[in-house]
# Entry
Amino acid sequence: MKRSVEDTPIVFIGAGNLATNLAKALYRKGFRIEQIYSRTEEAAYTLAREVEAGFTTDLQEISEEAKLYIVSLKDAAFVELLPQITAGKHGPLLVHTAGSIPMSVWEGYTERYGVFYPMQTFSKQREVDFEEIPFFIEAKSHEDVELLKAVAGTLSEKVYEATSEQRKSLHLAAVFTCNFTNHMYTLAAELLNKYHLPFDVMLPLIDETARKVHELAPHDAQTGPAVRYDENVINNHLAMLEDTSDLQEIYKLISKSIHEHH
Amino acid sequence: MKRSVEDTPIVFIGAGNLATNLAKALYRKGFRIEQIYSRTEEAAYTLAREVEAGFTTDLQEISEEAKLYIVSLKDAAFVELLPQITAGKHGPLLVHTAGSIPMSVWEGYTERYGVFYPMQTFSKQREVDFEEIPFFIEAKSHEDVELLKAVAGTLSEKVYEATSEQRKSLHLAAVFTCNFTNHMYTLAAELLNKYHLPFDVMLPLIDETARKVHELAPHDAQTGPAVRYDENVINNHLAMLEDTSDLQEIYKLISKSIHEHH
# Structure
């Protein structure tokens, strides 16, 4: 009988936003999640219960039975714990999920390694639909590239190979498109709150701004006072932001940058 | 026979992004668009042809037959042309569509005036669906508020009264949620282009970032290296932006602001 990729038992090292979403999605696809490690017992236990896995808060108790170890820790913690994570694991495949860490970080610690990077914004409070998420795969050996592609392929049709250099660039671009964009929403929500207006009123505008760049290049989709550097409006806005100097500085700098691009 | 609101003949003064989208939407709802004025003959003619209207590039030739004049010019041009736009128009209702200009700008120029502000990002190359767009209405007289609500109500279910002060705040928040957000997309597209990666790969992330704030407050939806101020990642990114000092400055300032909010 042919074994299917879902027969690959998985250990998750980390129980944060990404690990939580990924473990639940793989569990639903029929993968056996062997164990969850987290420094925080509550995080380890909460996720473990949802995916019928064991859990531990002790790196030395991490199961050696799995075929695939998905390490999804904060970058600094990952690099620090690397020796302990890899200790004694010479047979299975170890991957990390960080956009910004090169694959070479594994060198000298273990034999089979790679990167499994789903480019998306994950929060524990919201389950995402993996079908649309691009996965960027890298592994030391060709066989492990194929294995990771097969694992990602159970979740998404958008599975690509990418070098560490490409992944780093993607991650930087993602910080602009996602993290910085979301912070613009946060700043708007704060302003509206100050004026006793509900944030919800912005949702159609947010949706259209996102939909628009499916059709037009972002440069061509740009609107607003900064395009034509409308000083009346801009000075008016800056005056409204006078008591929040960081907002004022952000407004000035981005408006200047928009104008320079047009 | 009862007259319906669609029997209100309309003149558009301006043929830019907003006027184009609004005129076409009202035309499709059965309004008679009497005439289009634009300083640029091509813009006036192009829009006029699409909505079966006359057109002119001469302010003195603007029809006096309409019941509603929708003025949608750049803010500076509007204020400059106000005396000519209002000359001889003492019967009909005149409105502007600018988020940032108070209704009081009309005072002393004419008797019946107001504001008709659809809060959305408009481009000529893309037709938007008005159903979801919030309209913010203001008029000097109660009857004209009702008339404008009825006109907006043919396009959208989200029609609100708002004071000039509220509209100004909404417009400022919209600059953050839409204009600044779109510029983040532009900067990401530039970065990806530099690394020979396609912008399209960002679309699922852009969509999820927008969808997320339908469920979570933007503050709770925030992810990325700046939340926990991950210096490894941030310094790495800043090094990648070394040759584009404006991007580097934007990256620093927004990351600092994100961190201060978390």
Residues 168-260 of chain B form a domain with the N-(1-d-carboxylethyl)-l-norvaline Dehydrogenase; domain 2 fold (CATH 1.10.1040.20). Chain B has two domains: 5-162, 168-260. The CA atoms of residues 191 and 197 of chain B lie 9 Å apart.
